[in-house]
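Complex 375.
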Amino acid sequence: MKILGIETTCDETSVSIVEDGKHVLSNIIATSIDLHIKTGGIIPEQAARRQIESMIPVLNEAIVAAFPKEPTTNHQQLISNHIDSIAVAYGPGLIGSLLVGVETAKTLSYVLNKPLIPVNHLIAHIYANWIEPLADYRLQSTENAVASSQRAISFPALALVVSGGHTDLVFMKSHTDIEWISGTRDDAAGEAFDKTARLLDFPYPGGIHLSRAADEYISQIPNSQFQELDLFPRPLSEDEKTLDWSFSGLKTAVLREMERAKTIEQLSNETIQQYAAEIQEAIVDSLVDKSLKAAQKYKPKSFIVGGGVSANKRLREKLRNGIDGLRLGIGFFAPEPKYSTDNAAAIATCAFYHNQTKPWQEVDAKPNLTIMGEK
Ligand code: KG4
Ligand code: ZN
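Predicted structure with KG4 bound:
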């Protein structure tokens, strides 16, 4: 079964064709990041305009890339002949951006008479883990975590979704039986990365630049000193009663520390890198701490992480080591970094397992969708 997925929730325009919920035949992503670097953040109107312009070219490219042996003059015919369903991320996200993908998917469904599958973008982040081939480090996982015969995700699973706007932990008894466990009380983990990165004057998108600087700093200090990075608070980590997170205090703490030090222009490159490492450590430790507590409580067979922040190397390492260290035989799964951030392959993969088709008349963009659906 081949599903064509569309993802336009934020600043990407992505189309992908995925076979049987695991084989990516194509995954094309256009971003408008060049515009946002200039403004230091996303201007929704600009992102949506660019997405309208990119949608058809990206769609064409995805179809041509998926079927390289077919004549490429008639793209509609290719979709008609080869695609079983159209899937689209219908929320959460920016309304103008969402509308581009949703209306395109509805049009394809209507004109080509294909079933339409609306997909929750946050759930799709989890499903990036079903994409094959397996990410390398998964195969390197220590013997306690995943026996080689057991490298497939099995239920029940705990899934941590860490994106730019959301931080949620859910318990999956099956593909369709999903229970919300905890989330952030204020900023999302990605937001914490981005906002603090801005304070340190890193260019947009901050998270990735901050994490690069942090990794560089960490690579220069001896292994034993890794643990000593604890300049910034890990709110709620002492509170045994909750598995929630809180990240909003981090910005203030970083700002105070910077004021205490010097003005940004005077801070040396090494100090900036050190702050970056301390910030990354505070966010990662918070995420890992509650994840491990949840794993001990729920004893899942698999622990899954997804969303843009799951591209973070330090988070993957600490989560994997932490989960392995529990010695509960829990398999740890994180997507290939290119499938951590927004992409349509995850949408098409998710649609395969949540094959809930809807008439196009009933599919609407939902900017405020939560991981558990509409409020
Ligand atoms: O899932 P995503 O691509 O888009 C949303 O759904 O929001 O997540 C984007 C978030 C941004 O906050 C970005 O800074 C963060 O993921 N991010 C990272 C890294 N790569 C992306 N944060 C930390 N380390 C990274 N390597
Ligand atoms: Zn996302």
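The pocket of KG4 (ligand 1) is lined by residues 10, 163-165, 190, 193-194, 205-208, 211, 307-309, 311-312, 341-342 (CB under 6 Å).
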